[in-house]
Amino acid sequence: MTADDVREAAAALADRALELPELARARTVAAYVSVGSEPGTLTLLDALRERGVRVLLPALLPDNDLDWGAYTGEGSVARVQHGGKMALFEPSGERLGPDAVTGADVVLLPGLAVDGRGMRLGRGGGSYDRVLARLERAGARPALVVLLYDSEVVAHVPEEAHDRLVHAVVTPSGVRRFRSGA
């Protein structure tokens, strides 16, 4: 994709996501800053903040779990290189602890793909698997939404016993909901 294609996809993705009723009524959203070839999220994060939504961003811990911090604009994130792993954009302010995510109304998840059942394929580090398990243990029931490109919605992804279904996927062309979200 060209730089213009990436910008246009990010804007379309934000527009589609902002149409979700779950985001319209959300007070707190756990999200992430996209990296590499992921669909752009900054436009969406800024739009959520303009609506008065508290946006939480993850910070990768040494054991691959996630801590959380508040997003208050582009100046509140820093590029952090994690050893041999990819560099991530993380909140530069106060850390709120791994359990902060349990207060989110919506959790926006990265992924490589999602299938027709709502099974998400992550990058394999297990960070978001831990987040989903933490939500389940806490009895938290946020809307789980994956942000992807259209081509990343596929027929089938492999699953393991710890994997959880998501409620919806948002792509630049629209929203697809899954029965798991009922």
Automatic annotation (TrEMBL):
Pfam families: 5-FTHF_cyc-lig (PF01812). Keywords: ATP-binding, Ligase, Magnesium, Metal-binding, Nucleotide-binding. It catalyses: (6S)-5-formyl-5,6,7,8-tetrahydrofolate + ATP = (6R)-5,10-methenyltetrahydrofolate + ADP + phosphate. Its cofactor is Mg(2+). GO terms for molecular function: 5-formyltetrahydrofolate cyclo-ligase activity. Its EC number is 6.3.3.2. InterPro entries: FTHF_cligase (IPR002698), FTHF_cligase-like_sf (IPR024185), NagB/RpiA_transferase-like (IPR037171). PANTHER family: 5-FORMYLTETRAHYDROFOLATE CYCLO-LIGASE, ATPASE INHIBITOR/5-FORMYLTETRAHYDROFOLATE CYCLO-LIGASE. Belongs to the 5-formyltetrahydrofolate cyclo-ligase family. This is 5-formyltetrahydrofolate cyclo-ligase. The lineage of its organism: Bacteria, Bacillati, Actinomycetota, Actinomycetes, Kitasatosporales.
